[in-house]
Write a structure and sequence with these properties.
The protein has eleven helices and no strands. By secondary structure, the protein is an all-alpha fold.
Length: 217
């Protein structure tokens, strides 16, 4: 896509959804961090179910440490990799208490030193909690970046760097939310719903999926 097409692409997504947000439930920066760590290889719906009771009980890193790993496992045992995630959440909570006064640091490099926090997780927290213009490339954004021609790349980092280079203002802060939601509900992995896509004419994906019931469907 050229510059004008990219601007048009995000203009349409913004008009369709002026105030996008994460679908993870949380009440503060710490709960957001925990929810994003838990969401790796899990759905937001599944994480929200697992954290509903947990977040009524735990609002701070100190409270998480006091809860303990075994009790945390009982809260999150319905989501994938819960043993490793529980260990990481307790460990990162201990570090936040010990080194950061119980606060989530507004620094991507510092966040990625925490157990269980990779670049994507750090980008989500920086964007959602602190308003940073970061691009968290998950499987949806990686797929859309390549499928549409918006930001083609062989790795998540390559896609992220192209988005960072080419996404214009005033769309930079919310770009990754629009892309995630578009990938989750419209530009799906196995069967993109091209017939109802508001940016289909800008997309380089040629075998457009026809509407159900139409010839070729």
């Amino acid at each position: 896509m050229n510059r004008a097409q990219i601007f048009d692409f995000f203009s349409r997504l913004a008009e369709d959804n002026p105030a996008p947000r994460t679908e993870l439930d949380y009440s503060n920066d710490y709960q957001l961090l925990v929810a994003v760590v838990l969401s790796a290889q899990s759905t937001d719906v599944g994480v929200n179910k697992a954290t509903r009771a947990l977040f009524r009980e735990v609002e701070t890193p100190a409270q998480m440490v006091a809860l303990g790993e075994e009790a945390l496992k009982q809260h999150i045992k319905t989501i994938g990799l819960f043993n490793a995630k529980a260990k990481n959440v307790i460990a990162l909570s201990e570090i936040l208490v010990r080194d950061h006064g119980g606060a989530v640091p507004p620094d991507r490099d510092m966040l990625t030193t925490l157990p269980g926090v990779g670049r994507k997780t750090a980008n989500v927290v920086m964007n959602t909690a602190f308003g940073a213009e970061t691009f968290a490339v998950d499987t949806h954004i990686f797929r859309i970046g390549n499928r549409t021609g918006l930001a083609p790349g062989k790795t998540p980092l390559a896609v992220e760097l192209k988005l960072d280079k080419h996404v214009p203002q005033p769309f930079r802060r919310d770009a990754h939310h629009w892309l995630i939601l578009h990938g989750r509900y419209v530009c799906k992995a196995r069967r993109p719903e091209c017939w109802r896509c508001i940016v289909a004419d800008l997309c380089r994906y040629k075998p457009k999926t026809p509407s159900p019931g139409k010839p070729g469907a």
